[in-house]
Amino acid sequence: MTNTTWQKLVQSALETEDVEIDCEECYNLLDMYADVLVAKDNPDEMMPTVKQHLKQCNCCASELEALMVILEEVVSQENK
User: Which one of 19, 26, 29, 75 is most buried, by most CB atoms within 10 A?
Assistant: First the structure.
């Protein structure tokens, strides 16, 4: 493993919280999280466990990124 990989693993371990959700729980909440983002509200305050999971999980963060691209396209089409 490279130093960068080790640093990421250590950082991830240091950022763990007492209460965390798994990928399935996060996935089930991603739509709501994305809707709050689109509404320009602060989902991090409303859904801190999702925020924490997204910091730790590249797969779920990628899912959110793809969902946001789709939502932004829908919103831009509705505004035309």
Answer: 26
pTM of the full structure: 0.74
Looking up tokens 């829908």 gives 74
Query: What are 54-71's pLDDT values in tens digits?
Result: 988 999 999 999 999 999
Half-sphere exposure of 58 (CA within 13 A, CB side): 3
Amino acid letter at 79?
N
Q: Who has greater pLDDT, 38 or 68? A: 68
φ, ψ (nearest 5 deg) of residue 43? -70, -20
Q: Among the residues of the chain, which ranges form H helices?
A: 3-14, 23-38, 43-46, 48-56, 58-78
Q: How far is CA 5 from CA 2, 30, 47, 60, in A?
A: 5, 27, 28, 19
